[in-house]
Amino acid sequence: MISASNISLSYGTQVLFKDVNIKFSSGNCYGIIGANGAGKSTFMKILSGEIEPDSGTITITPGERMAVLKQNHFEFNEFSVLDTVIMGHKKLYDVKKEREAIYQKEDFTDEDGIRASELETEFAEMGGWEAESDAATLLSSIGVPSALHEKLMKDIEDTDKVRVLLAQALFGNPDILLLDEPTNHLDLESIVFLENFLLDFKNTVIVVSHDRHFLNTVCTHIADVDFGKITMYVGNYDFWYASSQIAARQAKDEKKRADEKIAELKEFIQRFASNVAKSRQATSRRKLIEKLTVDDIKPSSRRFPYVAFKPSREIGNKVLEINGLSYENAGEKLLDNLSLIVEPKDKIAFVGPMHSSKTAFFDIISDRMKQNSGDFGWGVTTSVSYFPKDNDYLFQTDDTIFSWLARFAPADSDETFIRSFLGRMLFSGDEVFKKVSVLSGGEKVRCVLSKMMLENCNVLIFDEPTSHLDLESIQSLNNGLIDFKGVILFNSHDHEFISSVANRIIEFTENGIIDRREGFDDYLADESVREKRNQLSGGKEIKLSI
Length: 546
Description:
This protein has helices at about 40-50, 80-85, 90-105, 110-125, 130-140, 160-170, 190-200, 210-220, 235-250, 260-275, 280-290, 355-365, 400-405, 415-425, 440-455, 470-485, 495-500, 520-525, 525-535; strands at about 1-10, 15-25, 30-35, 55-60, 65-70, 175-180, 205-210, 220-225, 230-235, 320-330, 330-340, 345-350, 375-380, 385, 460-465, 485-490, 505-510, 510-515. By secondary structure, the protein is of the alpha/beta class.
């Protein structure tokens, strides 16, 4: 168990935490959520001891070992991959190295023999004889091939370093596990391994992640960082979101009778508990939820932007036809004789590791870039709005947020209309006069989404729209696209986003595309997809990433 008592931390006039009291118990997985800049990663560093709070204490049950997912990718450059993993269990690693040093002595003394005997006992008790094989198994399970295990960390790719550091944190069955964005740079197979690992893990897990599918799969509790406080909720992210939305709606509806409110919340709790019973965490999570009372469900103070896309014209039967599209950049072939037809009601997720190819494809069909050969044609009823991955070119101006958005608003729009629109996207008061050139990544995304909403198009193209957004904005965009009546072409690293929006999956591989009219979860389970992927790769095993 680990607990925080009266934790406070400020940077200048910015108060991150004030008198925070929270306890994390064994057997549970806690998801830390909060808006960008709320202090999620800072709180994790306080828990790990990396940052000293202004006041308050962190208490860990005596004798328990904590493991932390390291963020410094260069910290272990001079160590082998295997040793880096074993270093996750510091005491075991220290015993291992001292033991090896004694046996390498040329003048081995009686005292060395006694010490060696003590170390052998400690080494065996901590599972030292299995350490290297356990580390190797862990590495392979998380996508680090055996050919890299003896290499120095400085000699492997940065994406592999991320995996090695994750294996280091998981190694040796720690009592408390702190993971900050553990799914970054992992392929889907590795994420599934991590999810299963944490579902079977019996100790305490505290995780920060923007991956809602991951939070929904592994978490028994959500800890919400907001306004300097941390509030604990039972359930996963979806339960937190849905219950807080119901509570917020009821709080606004003062005319609704109290017993009606109670009935609605009780029905929600029972429905969720029934769904939880089907998950691997059924036992622990269902018990927690069934202990809930209506009074435990509170409205969140978190603000969600309003995202809704309303086409001004219904789309016709012809949407987009692509014939033999090819494009290469600096000698690299990104698109090779690509042909496909997009039909009405298609919501297509483009997946796979060929990120540059997906961006080139979106740029070409949005007329931002010219193909080398082939052609494409949009239907006469289509109107297209594009969210580019690199949107900086849109903000190279001295405009304020207000004047920038006014350029895309209808001609008869007045100040009240624009201010109201910006307010729904969480730009309020004098903030609307901030220069767009100094906006954060997340603020720029909200501006581009505002522009797209004003364009009222019936075809939306998104190139990684979720990358800079907090969970609240991702949830709002997700809901907006589920409700959208037109055609969507998009890619994203968010599993939940893809699975809840897409009804067609197109995977880009080095040797062609795989095209299936099915949802993402069905696509992942589709044996014909694996066969097609192996066929395209000439028998080479390719792991899917998004």
